[in-house]
Each structure stands twice: as C-alpha cells, then as structure tokens.
Amino acid sequence: MSTVLIVASGLTGLLHATDEAARRLSKAGHTVHYASPLQVKNKLGPHIEEFHALPARQRRLVPKLARLHPVIRLVAGTVGFSGYRHQAIQALAQAPYRDLLARIRPDIVLVDLELHEYVLTTHAAGVPYLLVSPWFQNVFMEHMPPLTVDRPPGAAEAKASGHGPGLRQWSGWAGWQDRRSILLDQARRAGFDSDKLTVAGWPPPITFRQVPILHFVLREMDFPYPVPGYTHYVGPMVRAMDWQMVDGRLRTMVDGARSAGKKIIYASATTMQAGGQDRATLFAAAVRSRPDWFLILTGGGKNDFPTVTENENVAHFDWVPQTALLTRVDCCINHAGIGTINECVFLGVPMVIYSGGKHDQPGCTARLRYHGLAVVGERDDSPEAVAGRIEQALTLTELRRKVARYRDLARDGAVRDRLVSVVEACLASQAQSAG
After folding, report:
1. 417: exposed, middle or buried (C-beta count within 10 Å: 0-12, 13-18, 19+)?
2. Are 113 and 211 in contact (CB under 8 A)?
3. Out of 3.40.50.2000, 3.40.50.1260, 3.20.20.450, 3.40.50.150, which CATH number does the structure's domain 243-411 have?
4. Which among 55, 65, 152, 344 is placed 20 to 30 Å from 267, CA to CA?
5. Does the bond joining 350 to the residue before it have cis omega, within 30 degrees of 0?
6. Are strands 197-198 and 207-208 parallel, antiparallel or unpaired?
7. In the structure, how many helices (H) and strands (E) does the chain have?
8. Cα dist from 35 to 109, 190, 416, 421, whole Å
C-alpha cells in the first residue's frame, strides 16, 4: 500500500480528528506518518508509523514591524525591505519539512489548510496532497454566508459580509514583510496558481480555493449549494473513548446521577475564554432549582470557576475525557466549536448553543439553527431562559428525531469509508498520470 503523511498544527480542534483519520487509513493498509510543530506524539495512537517534530511556528514573521503604525510600517518595510524579507522567509522554517519529504517520500500528504506554508512547500515539491479542514465550506462563495457570520443562506446582507480583506484583515500588514505578503510571495515562487488563492476567506491570512480538500463534517450539515468536484465531505472523524476506561470522581458522580434518574447536562467552557466564567455561573444558576438535573462543567484547563459552588446537582472539572462523557449525557451546552459539534452529532447528543462569537463559531451556529440540530441561546439569557432551553433540548421530539437521524448518517458505513475512498482515488489518479 501507500505511505501517507499527515501534517497538522497539533491544536486540539484537529488533533483528535486527524488521529482518527490516520487510524482509518492505517486500518485500510496504508503506512501513516504524522508531522506537527507541536509535540503531540504522546497524544497519537499506535497506528502512527512515526511522528516527526516540525519547527515551532512563528505567528508574526517580523514582530517589531507588525506592532508599528501602518504608515511607519510602510516606510520601515521599504527601507529595510531586503533584510526584513530574508528574516521573514527564514521564520517560515521550511527547510526541515523539505528534508522530511525527501526522506520518507510520501505518496500523498494530508495537510492542515491552516498551515499555509506547508501546503505551498508540498506543492513546490510536486508531492500529491489534499487539504484537510475541520470546518464547513470555508471559501467565500456567492449566496453563501461566510463561516464568520451567523446568517442563513439568502440573507440580504450575507453576500457583502466579510467578502473582502477589509481594514481588520489587513491590520497585521507590515510593509510587505507580514505573513500574508510572505505567503503570497512563497506561492509565486512555488508556481502556485494565483487564481486559486484569495485574501478573502477563512482561515486568514490567505485561503486556498479550487484545491482538493477533505472536510471533516457531514455534507448534510452544511448549507445547500452546488458542491464542486474538488470538495469532499468525508464526515466527522470521531472515535469515542470507552466509558469503562474512565475512573475516579467523574465516573462516580455520573454513574450516581444516572442511577438516581437524573438528566445529565454537560457544559463545556473550554475555549469560551473571557466569557467562560460568566456563562458557567449562568449555567449553574439555571439548574439550581432542578434537582432532577445534574450539571457537569469543564474549563479544559482555562477556567477553574471560582464563583461556582458545587452542590448535589453541580460539579466542575478542570478537564474531562469528552468523547467518553458524551456517551453518558443527555444534553451538551457548548460554544459552537466544530470539534464538540462533530462529537455530539456522531454520538447523538442534543445541543444547546451559546456561541463564543469567535472565528467559525457564528457560521457553525447558523448551520445548526438552519438544520434544527440545536437549541440556540441568546447572549442576554437569564438563568430561567437557559433552563428553558435545556428543557427544550431534553424534550423536543422533532429536535431529538433530527439528532438521531444525523447520528445515523455520521455512523453510516459509506460515510465512514469515504475518507479512505477519496484518498485512494487520488492515489490511483496520480499513478495513472505517472504511467
């Protein structure tokens, strides 16, 4: 069989999904290597042939310039153009990755679309590749609201919202030495078709379009639109941890609540950041008068909930094994992060959404609302309003019917086999071209 290299950021949002993708490819007989700028070796499964550490990414290629006033950036960037450009190119740190490609000679690379420089280096090396995205359609298209806004398709203002770089997107510009400018120059040097790049899309600072891409979501959960041939929805990459492997305080509390006939609500404030504490307090207040409910709060190490008092129906944890816990809960309150959404869909858990309003969360919220897959809360909800939304998620027949339908879709054998089918079709096409 073939050698597959997965190149991913190592961030939690895509880490577990790419590990599951690697497991499926390995099960199909392929040898899978994994490379990341974060040290995630111990978080990957035994199906990985070898882990390769990449240099840490520099978010700002020329930090001093990026902090200056735009006019000063222009002057400084022009005066020191050559030196700053060399510094920025060196900061991309692509030499070790080129050496890795030459050493393991992968037949195909699955590369995180957020790792723009690695996509371009793979392209320049002439190695077949597929982009990997945890999100829904991420390229701005006519009549399709971008992922960064909470609007349904056809909304009058959807077409204009976010369809251009704008002042905010150019705020990091540093006299042609910033990441966007350097990446565009790298694309030119790599012979990348400029028509397949845009500065208006997600994720910034540049977006690839008309490039073969794997979306780790269900097609049925995106907005309706004519799907291009290079776009492949391969379904959620989720593998639940066995609840029997969980022990300690969490298991005791959950099993006890289930034995008492309580409904278990799980609220994840993992990446809510500044709003996490306030919302955790709100959620705890919402269940205070419901002895038949048991709320589990987690902050993922970012929120320790000092104002939330534990009692007979509220407990909080710094971290929980999320996929294992989701097999035991009746409802999940989350911030519309695509990772948790995919896990809830795959495991058939009704959701209450309080969007964090960041990145792709507005667009994810819009799609869940459009398909009737979640109860969506409002920013100014009172504890009583939150309790009402939880009650809806627990009891609405139509919502629960849709959740079950999409769970069955995500687990369907044809969907689960789609990743391997697409990768192998790409390999076969390349072999045919080479022959």
Report:
1. middle
2. no
3. 3.40.50.2000
4. 152
5. no
6. antiparallel
7. 17, 15
8. 10, 21, 24, 23
**CATH fold of the domain at 3-238+413-434:** Rossmann fold (3.40.50)
Strand partners, 13: none
> Residue 79 and residue 68: Cα distance in Å, rounded?
14
The H or E element spanning position 266 is strand 263-268
Q: How far apart are CA 36 and CA 15, in angstroms?
A: 10
The CB density around residue 20, as the number of other CB atoms within 10 Å, is 18
Place of tokens 């534990």: 310
The candidate with the shortest Cα–Cα distance to 257, out of 283, 296, 305, 286, is 296
- Own/partner pairs, 41-47, CB within 8 angstroms, 24+ separation: 43/15, 43/19, 44/19, 45/19, 47/22, 47/23
| 264: its two tokens | 């278990």
Digits of tens for pLDDT over the chain (435 positions)?
A: 899 999 999 998 899 999 999 999 999 999 999 999 999 999 999 999 999 999 988 766 555 555 555 665 556 555 444 555 666 666 676 899 999 999 999 999 999 999 999 999 999 999 999 999 999 998 877 778 888 899 988 764 444 444 444 444 444 444 455 778 888 888 998 899 999 998 877 888 889 989 999 999 999 999 999 999 999 999 999 988 888 888 889 999 999 999 999 999 999 865 444 444 578 888 999 999 899 999 999 876 555 566 677 888 999 888 899 999 999 999 999 999 999 999 999 999 999 999 988 888 999 999 999 999 999 999 899 999 999 999 999 999 999 999 999 999 999 999 999 999 999 999 999 877 776
Give dist(CA 134, CA 234) in Å, integer. 10
Other C-beta atoms lying within 10 Å of the C-beta of residue 258: 15
Q: Do domains 3-238+413-434 and 243-411 have the same CATH topology?
A: yes
Q: Which residue has the tokens 């709060």?
A: 297
> Prior bond to 205 cis, omega within 30?
yes
- Tokens representing residue 96 in the block: 């070790």
Token pair 């050493």 is found at: 103
Beta strands in 81-157 (DSSP E): 108-112, 129-133
Distance from C-alpha of 11 to C-alpha of 52, rounded to nearest angstrom = 15
- Return the structure tokens found at 410: 């995500």
Q: Which residue ranges make up each domain of the chain?
A: 3-238+413-434, 243-411
